[in-house]
């Protein structure tokens, strides 16, 4: 509300409006180059006297992992008794994937120095490592939960629209090779479209992916049924639901695929500037509205 009032005021004052636009554009261009950090966990303190090589072993493994990110949206590796993997969201470009994993490998070492287990999440990717071999094992803890504080129009009623959208996704997407998918529900009776995304790390098999997503869906039902948007991230899978399109829509299949060809460049029309300004403001407002509540779970081993 405060933001809207401020915007209204600025709209009446051309000079301030210009400076607002410049601020927003600067904000967008700086956030576009950096991934959006979500959360991080560390555990299992390491005794660096006992294992003096741990830090350098970890650093070698993570930089080798990071070097794969321009070509692979998922990669797992292990060496010297440390296991690791990363996963980029199914719709992000290889450039964004690489940028995100570069940042993740640096941040996880900076914030979890000398920890035997760590996991970091961004909007665009996640990365984890451990001295315990977790590869192929599905894990739903630790997890984070985030929701929009805004209620749906009927918060006390079972949100059947969410289930109608998400159930079929959980049934089908684990059996796709990429274990990632998005879907959109139609608007009806004046309600907005809703959008959902599910993804699993590809070290686990399809039935484990499905179990993981079912666990998260149950958790979402408990916490967030009355909310207009929410997301849950766990080590092996993640689930997100919003009233706006937070992912790149899947590209329509091209008749002649050219795997080596350049990325398609969007063509902007004559009034592209206007559209950009509208999208920019919508993006800023919705990301402010989203990051409002965060709940974390950590199980004891
Ligand atoms: C991470 O490791 C450090 C150093 O061993 C330790 O002090 C810290 O408690 C660990 N953090 C967690 C969350 O286990
Ligand atoms: C680390 O290991 C050394 C050698 O085993 C031991 O003397 C020291 O107390 C340990 N330190 C911690 C914090 O556990
Ligand atoms: C990794 O650690 C082991 C001991 O745990 C050591 O023998 C080895 O040289 C280390 N490798 C690297 C690349 O640091
Ligand atoms: C990683 O990205 C964050 C923004 O999400 C930025 O503040 C930080 O400086 C970056 N870290 C590195 C090491 O590039
Ligand atoms: C959302 O709905 C719940 C249940 O009806 C209510 O307790 C809560 O105060 C509402 N929250 C907001 C922000 O409107
Ligand atoms: C999936 O992996 C689990 C072990 O994590 C195994 O018990 C199960 O049989 C596997 N399912 C299939 C269909 O391969």
TrEMBL record:
The keyword DNA repair does not apply. The chain crosses the membrane at residues 279-298. The keyword Membrane applies. Coiled coil: none annotated. Keywords: Membrane, Repeat, Signal, Transmembrane, Transmembrane helix. Residues 1-33 form the signal peptide. Pfam families: Stress-antifung. Residues 36-134, 140-246 form the Gnk2-homologous domain. It comes from the Eukaryota. This is Gnk2-homologous domain-containing protein. It comes from Salix udensis. The lineage of its organism: Eukaryota, Viridiplantae, Streptophyta, Embryophyta, Tracheophyta.
